[in-house]
Specification:
By secondary structure, the protein is an alpha/beta fold. 40% of the residues lie in helices and 16% in strands. The strands form 5 sheets. A 7-stranded mixed β-sheet has the order 1-11-13-12-14-17-16, with helices on both faces. It has a 7-stranded mixed β-sheet with strand order 3-2-10-5-6-7-9, with helices on both faces. It has a two-stranded parallel sheet with strand order 4-8. It binds zinc ion (ZN).
Length: 708
């Protein structure tokens, strides 16, 4: 029944689109017509039934990086891509540091004895929760060791929390620190580094019900939020310093590669750490008898949260850190006209357990998208540029597979790549939440206007409404504010954006989701809460594929540098607003450079529109213009990297240690540290890059004016 409904819907959308006749950036009218036909064909292929079947397959068993099941999925993906008609299917192997628990244990030894279960409850309604392969909670890359010591509650485990403990005369050195996951949010690896710097002996991170449990709404299996025993697993790798295999920082872990000793690896934590459910954490917290914690440290449990006192515990973590193999599956559809211009796309395969949302929703969406591309190819429709698709491994550990692959093919990617489009979790609800470097933001908005969402509205209309709802805005959100253009870390785009300077797009549908990285992030959860009809999985296959098709087939790449320049101006203005620069750094010259870049971007946009309005561009001109446009993002790279973190080379984007987005990282961090010498150096690097890019746009403009 659903199937015939779908066909009807696409017929309706076809006629609606024919009436609406939307503008298509980068295409002449003639080319836009044939592109529309290709897109209509493409959109009809992905189906919710197929997405659901795929999702069941990928979530059938726990499949962490390095496990036999995850490797079996890699072989299946490779085989499927071959059958779908993809070319050059390869499985790359990387030998990387593993991090598997041999033993994880926590026992309270005073004032009463209590042994934490570190396990999640099984429920009859969801047979997957009874799967014997589900493991106890642990944190990837925790150090091994054992300690018996007093326990201190340190709120969210951020530096200011330890300042407050110090004010109360509480020293955490040698102690076991227990912290919450997110109040406010910070990446668990940052909590580990902070605890390590404070001299704590061990770190326990637990899920407080105020953050993702019953204080938010109904809990699993009756609702989308985390039940009492759910555990948020995860890695604590210091990949904000350098991601990828910790033993090969900056180069690929191909078999036989040079490896540094583990003690020299910057991204390997030296503290023992583990995650806990609130049920296991409660006895530790409620038996404390020391000073009461401040109001904003009180969580969702019906107890008085205290800073410390009376509670002693024994913590033991024993990790296996031998070398394991990670597998990246890669395939292509070679472009018919520009095989050396690549649209790179990817999704990670490894999951902490079943990976219902993270990442198997993305994997199901990806496989439906690749099926649609294969069908088009079988019907004789090849993209003009090459599509490259990858199934990453070890994302959950250290963004490992994507980083190693990016490092291995760095030179080729810098020359040939047009874009990287990442989908990690595709669907935890209906709210479209893409982010992108600003040059691609207008394309996402434009594309969303031509796609129909499951509600029957356009994706664009649905997106606007849901964002206004989220921001509690009275008026609708403006088009130029729809795409989030501030990009932090935490997924596989990192190597492509920050190390290789590729323009990056990240796509996802969001919703209430309290079971992240737990055993309840599974098929049952998706079918009952996340996306019961799998319509948003299919929507993702469509929006991802159509975006890729637009970039792959455009005559002039649909990049908007006028928009990019305005975004960079906002970044600079924010640095001015948030910091007292006291005349030590003068950003007026930077703003002048940005104005020049904007003027060049605007002139180029106009020239492209004019040229395309006249009809198809001659191939030589469009190719030479595109080659220039492809260089812009790599010009934002500084070979030295940002101060203190040489692997991160992009001067507009990076992430803080907390994973929060960080714009103009070199300049911002220098200003925040009041290091004016470094700030001025970073300002000059930024100005030079902007000038270089303005010149590039002017050269592209020149090419265009010479044609016809
Ligand atoms: Zn993920």
């Amino acid at each position: 029944m659903l199937c015939s409904m779908m066909t009807m819907l696409s017929v309706v959308s076809l006629s609606f689109n024919a009436i609406a006749q939307q503008h298509m950036s980068g295409f002449s009218q003639q080319a836009a017509q044939s592109q529309k036909q290709v897109e209509e064909k493409f959109k009809r292929i992905p189906s919710p039934e197929e997405a659901r079947k795929l999702h069941r397959y990928f979530t059938a068993e726990p499949h962490p990086a390095g496990s036999e099941r995850n490797n079996e999925l890699a072989r299946n993906i490779a085989e499927t891509w071959k059958q779908q008609g993809w070319e050059d299917v390869r499985i790359h192997r990387y030998d990387v540091l593993s991090s598997y628990p041999r033993e994880v244990a926590v026992e309270m030894v005073a004032p009463v004895r209590y042994k934490a279960s570190l396990r999640e409850d099984a429920y009859d309604v969801d047979p997957d929760t009874k799967n014997p392969n589900v493991r106890s909670g642990y944190l990837g890359l925790s150090a091994s060791g054992e300690v018996t010591s007093p326990v201190v509650y340190a709120h969210s485990g951020n530096p200011e929390d330890y300042d407050l403990l110090r004010k109360h005369g509480i020293d955490v050195r040698g102690k076991i620190v227990i912290v919450r996951y997110s109040n406010p949010y910070s990446y668990r690896g940052f909590k580990a580094l902070t605890a390590e710097r404070e001299g704590a002996a061990a770190l326990i991170i637990y899920s407080d019900p105020a953050e993702d449990g019953y204080k938010k709404g109904k809990v699993f299996p009756d609702g989308p939020w985390g039940p009492e025993s759910h555990i948020q697993r995860g890695a604590i790798t210091y990949d904000f310093m350098v991601p990828g295999d910790p033993l090969t920082p900056g180069w690929a872990s191909i078999p036989g590669a040079k490896r540094i000793p583990i003690v020299e690896a910057r991204s390997v934590p030296k503290i023992i750490a583990l995650p806990m459910s609130w049920r296991d954490a409660k006895p530790l917290l409620e038996n404390m008898d020391g000073p009461e914690a401040p109001k904003d440290w009180q969580g969702g449990l019906p107890i008085k949260y205290r800073l410390t006192g009376a509670v002693r515990a024994h913590v033991k973590v024993d990790m296996d850190t031998s070398v394991m193999a990670n597998y990246v599956v890669e395939a292509r559809i070679r472009g018919s006209e520009f095989p050396d211009e690549w649209i790179v796309m990817g999704n990670h395969r490894d999951a902490w357990e079943f990976g219902g949302v993270d990442p198997s929703s993305g994997t199901a969406s990806m496989m439906e998208m690749t099926r649609a591309f294969g069908e088009l190819k079988k019907q004789g429709t090849r993209p003009r540029r090459t599509l490259v698709i990858c199934s990453w491994d070890g994302e959950e550990v250290a963004l490992t597979g994507s980083t190693e692959w990016g490092e291995q093919f760095a030179d080729e990617l810098k020359k040939k790549s047009v874009v990287y489009i990442n989908v990690d979790s595709s669907t935890s609800g209906p709210d479209f939440r893409p982010s992108a470097v600003a040059s691609f933001a207008p394309l996402i908005v434009e594309t969303s206007r031509s796609l129909d969402a499951p509600s029957g509205k356009t994706l664009y209309a649905e997106w606007k409404l849901s964002l206004a709802r989220e921001q509690k805005a009275k008026r609708s959100v403006k088009d130029d504010k729809l795409v989030d253009t501030k990009i932090g870390s935490g997924s596989d785009h990192t190597v492509f954006l920050n190390f290789l300077g590729m323009p990056t797009i990240l796509l996802q549908f969001d919703g209430p989701y309290g079971v992240y990285h737990s055993a309840y992030d599974n098929f049952y959860w998706m079918n009952n809460f996340g996306d019961p009809g799998y319509r948003y999985h299919t929507m993702m296959s469509v929006v991802w594929g159509v975006l890729a098709l637009r970039i792959a087939n455009a005559e002039i790449l649909p990049l908007d540098f006028a928009f990019y320049s305005r975004n960079i101006r906002e970044f600079v203005t924010e640095v001015q607003k948030k910091n007292a620069l006291k005349g030590r750094v003068n950003l007026q010259s930077t703003l002048r450079r940005i104005a020049e870049f904007e003027a060049a971007g605007l002139a180029l946009n106009r020239a492209i529109s004019r040229a395309l309005a006249k009809g198809r561009l001659d191939a030589r001109t469009s190719e030479s213009v595109n080659q220039k446009l492809m260089q812009v993002e790599t010009n934002w790279l500084n070979a030295e990297g940002i101060p203190g973190r040489p692997w991160f080379k992009h001067i507009l984007y990076a992430a803080r240690y907390t994973y929060a987005h960080l714009e103009l990282p070199g300049l911002t961090e220098a200003v925040e540290q009041k290091n004016w010498k470094s700030a001025n150096e970073q300002r000059r690097i930024l100005e030079d890059a902007i000038a270089k890019n303005s010149a590039l746009l002017v050269a592209a403009l020149d090419e265009l004016s010479k044609s016809k």
